[in-house]
Amino acid sequence: xLIPKKLKYRKSHRLRGAFKGVAQKGNKIAFGSYxxxxxxxxxxxxxxxxxxxxxxxxxxxxxxxxxxxxFPHQPITQKAAEVPMGSGKGNVEKYVSLVxxxxxxxxxxxxxxxxxxxxxxxxxxxxxxxxxxxxxxxIN
Length: 140
Hints:
Order of helices and strands: EEHEEEEHEH
Helix content: 10-25%
CATH topology of the domain at 34-74 and 94-139: Aldehyde Oxidoreductase, domain 3
Distance between the termini: 34 Å
CATH class of the domain at 34-74 and 94-139: Alpha Beta
């Protein structure tokens, strides 16, 4: 699973209200020929990224190349069960990547479009947001 090697601060705010709009960066295909793009806002955990990556890799039978375009930098804390109020912030439970609509999540190259489309569809089922398959051939 993906986790940061080092953070300036171990715990951080959630950015619930400040996290709005569409992606300005990371919204175009940069490495591969095919990609999966988020259509809704979501917090994607490192476990979900790994599950989606495995689903794609298994379907393409380790052929082609896959790029993961997002990284879970944001720590999410959670208090233990039945802890009274005022006992501080909880422990870090997971790391998430904050994804805006339009963000490219995965890219793929080295396989035909039909196989890539199906692999991306399987990966999309593992993610908490609506996704869309895009191709660099359609754009250029």
